[in-house]
Amino acid sequence: SGNNFEIIIIDDGSPDGTQEIAEQLQKIYGSDKILLRPRARKLGLGTAYIHGMKHATGNFIVIMDADLSHHPKFIPEFIRKQKEGNFDIVSGTRYKGNGGVYGWDLKRKLISRGANFITQVLLRPGASDLTGSFRLYRKEVLQKLMEKCVSKGYVFQMEMIVRARQLGYTIGEVPISFVDRVYGESKLGGNEIVSFLKGLLTLFATT
Fold first, then answer.
1. Each residue's pLDDT tens digit, 98-125
2. For burial by CB atoms within 10 Å, which of 22, 102, 154, 165 has the most?
3. In this structure, what are the phi and psi dihedrals at residue 7, rounded to the nearest 5 degrees?
């Protein structure tokens, strides 16, 4: 690619063999390119970001799911977009241009669309996809946002963008196609929807 990179894999004791596969990749590509930083149990997405940041040596960090629902082919587009507008954050969007979602049932699509619509109306964040997690950040911007964010779960990604706008950071967007995971199950359920709505109202009241 011509880009100097490292891949940091944070695995929270998942039972799907992620760590074993990462160890095999390490043997092929070397431990300087594939950094495996496992944790003994599930400690949450926010702390995984902080854990990964401690080990990142570059000026920019791309965050993505490791189950290939986020395709690596979009990373060069993120980098191009960042350079083009000197953006602090480049966010992958399923809801603009030729972006889209594949493999979700109607209920899941409606929940995601509904969450985005309500958020746009209440918070006017200036970005079209608030709940996605495929993003490129300047390292120092990600550190600042992590200090400010208090949410957990589904609301966390949304708060990252809302706080970024609040702090005056610039955000670019790249249309992506999101493909639902082939292995494992989504954790989105009734409790997550309730906590999302609570988190949304908290953000509305505090931003």
1. 888 888 888 878 887 888 888 888 888 8
2. 154
3. -115, 115
Q: Where are the alpha helices (DSSP H) in 92-189?
A: 106-123, 139-148, 154-166
Looking at the chain, which residues constitute the CATH 3.90.550.10 domain(s)?
60-206
Tokens of 52: 């990964």
In DSSP terms, which residues pair with 175 in a beta bridge?
93
Nearest to 204 by CA among 132, 145, 133, 120: 120
* Residue 12 DSSP code: B
The H or E element containing residue 206 is helix 190-206
Any idea which residue has 């599930």 for tokens?
42
- 60-206 placed in CATH 3.90.550.10: yes
Q: In this structure, are residues 64 and 134 in contact, taking their beta carbons and an 8 Å threshold?
A: yes
Residue recorded with tokens 């009734």: 190
| Whole-number Å distance between alpha carbons of 179 and 162 | 25
